[in-house]
Amino acid sequence: MQEKAYIIHLERASARRKQVDRIVEACPMPTDIVHAVDGHSLSPEKVSQVYSRNRHEPRYPFELKRGEVGCFLSHRKCWRRIVDENLDAALILEDDIEIDKPVFDRALAIARKHVDAVGYIQFQVRPVPTNASIIAVEGEAQLVRPELTQLRTSAQFVSQSAAHRLLELTDVFDRPVDTYLQMHWLTGIHLASATPSGISDRSHDSGGSTISSKQKSFFENVVRTWKRWHYRSKIKNLFQNHAGSIQQSGKPGKPNKFGTCSKHSHVGRQGDRAFHTRYSQL
User: What is the pTM of this model?
Assistant: First the structure.
C-alpha cells in the first residue's frame, strides 16, 4: 500500500512545534508536515471564493470564523496531496494530538484492511458511542460506525477515492470541515471509527486552540446554544431517517439528481429517494 502521514501544522503556532516532533517520532509511516492555511491571513476576496453560506440543508446556523475557513482549506490541501501523489490512503493528523503507539498501531492495522471500502476512518480523541454498529473486529481493535458521525478531525485515514470525492464537492463550502463530513447523504462517504484509537487530545498543553474566538455576552451564548441544539437535532433526525437504508460498505459514488449518492457507500437507491423527501423539507 502506498501511504503517507500528513501533519497539519500552523507555522505561527510555535508552541506546538515540540508536539509535532513527538507525532513524527511516533508515526508508523513516512511523514510530511503540511503548512496549515492561516485563516487570519486570507483576504476577503479569497474567503468569498471558497465560502458561501446556506449551500446545503440543514443550514448551518453560524458564519464561519477565518480560522474555520483555514482549517477546511488545510484538510483540502491534504486531500489534494493524496490524489496528486497517487497514494492509496493517507493519515491526516492535526498537530495537537498524542499517539499511544501500541494502541494506535492496532487501530491502524484494522483501518488499513478496510479503508478502500469505507473511504474515511476516524481515530477519535473521545469515546465512541457504545451503540455504534460493528464492521470488523481484530484482537482488541474494532472498526465501528457510530449512528451519528462524531465531530473533530484530530486524526483520520483517508483513501484516494474518498479524497478525490471530497475535493470534487468542496470547491465552495458552507460549514466547518467536521460538520460537513457528517453529511454522508451528500458525500456518499459514511465515516467509520477505529477504536480504541490510541489518539488523545493535547491542545491544552500545546498552546490552546488556533481558531480564536471573541468573548461573547451571556445573551449571545444562550442564542448560540439554542441554534446549535436546533441544528444538531436536525442532523440527528436525518441520520435516524437514513439509517434504515444503510447497507454493506462500498466505495464513494456521485450524487444523483436529488443531490444524494446513487452509488452510496452504505446507502441504496430506495433509501435515497425516501430520504430526499424528508431532507428537502427541512
Answer: 0.82
